[in-house]
Amino acid sequence: MAESHSESTSDSPTTTSSTHDQSAISTSTRSHHVPEIPIEIISEEEMAILDAALAATRSFLPSAIRSAAASPSRGVSKASITMLSKRKLSACSSSSSLDIEDSFLRRFRKNQALGVTDLTATEWCEKQMENVLCLGRRKVSKAMKLGQARHLELEEEVVKRVRVKVESNEDKWALKLLSSIAGVNQFLFEGRTRELLLVGFVGGQWIVGVIDEVSKASAGDSSDTGPLLSDTKTRVRDTLPAEPQRRNGRLQVMLYKLLWDTVVKEEFPATRFFNYFALNRHEVLSKDVRDNIADAGIPAQTLEEIVRYYETTFKMLPVANDQLLLRYEFQQDRSIIAEIRFPHDPEWVMSKYKEVIEFWRSEREAEYTPEEERWKCRYCQFAKSCPGNPSLQSPSPSSPPREPRPLAS
Ligand code: SF4
């Protein structure tokens, strides 16, 4: 057993047929009701996880070793919104001019990596993301807390948390990277790990993601033997979410694959890493951190040495499997609603990635969610003031598309 951080939740919507699930949907057989209120539990901010990681990290080798010595196309183009309404809810900007020096990235993620959940939340609705950044997020709901608790429970099946005192940012990063190294070791020796933190430089941007689960692909799955990346979503209702929500889930797992493949294939830009995160590569780590590193059997004193181990460790790994997996679990009894396998789509994920990065770099105005998905507005904390919300103009907002029952397995 190794130790780690958890990935968790926030609420958002549900229901319809998939254009991107060219996939087998294996499901439980049980009677289903299409949810009236589409609620889904998705990952919360990656940065929150990182904050949690400041105090907690994995023990660095799996127990066995210690004892012995992720074209669809959203199919939807950007929402066609009038420029007038676009500019009405610019919660952050005092002027309509776009200035890269004043980008969301610089203002809200200075010296930080963008989390994968930053990216997926932006895909959900850019305007909502803008408002979350500028006005704040509402409190965590009960469903979100349940989802977080479930993720923690799943993580604890394979990971044991330990607390380590940190004294500097170098210490924090050393623990994060060591946690990743431990996760990889666990995957290699036990065939599975959970909550694997990855940081990589993807397309000119530092990205961090916490992969819910990495497991060895079973021989029967396909000829692709690359590690299988998957994510479990817990749901308040025993139905699949709407297609936009499933699309968002697929994007998340594909981003994990993009990140994974980048880290295993490309040289880790260490100098850029130290500069961007304002870290001193030569600083000797604190005693507690060094003790933990030593317990892991790694002879390292500085962050630079840990970075080298991180790079070397991932270089041993193959690219991730082209098949990705989303698992939907019913919160109430933890039964599996569906397991959706889908192929990685490199062109689609790159186009979405670029689109989202444009938003973060403030290279264009934030868009409202597409018109056909404005039912999302009913569950949005900014609905009462957002010009994109159709119910502000009409009493009958569009409804989420209905999701057919999952296929019986
Ligand atoms: S009300 Fe609708 S368009 Fe406006 S921020 Fe929320 S989800 Fe986006």
UniProtKB/TrEMBL annotation:
Annotated region (Disordered), positions in chain: 1-32, 386-409
Family per similarity comment: Belongs to the EXO5 family.
Composition skew (Low complexity), residue ranges: 9-23
Gene3D superfamilies for this protein: 3.90.320.10
InterPro entries: EXOV (IPR019190), PDDEXK-like_dom_sf (IPR011604)
Pfam families reported for this sequence: Exo5 (PF09810)
Residue ranges that the Swiss-Prot or TrEMBL entry lists as coiled coil: none
Name the record gives this protein: Exonuclease V
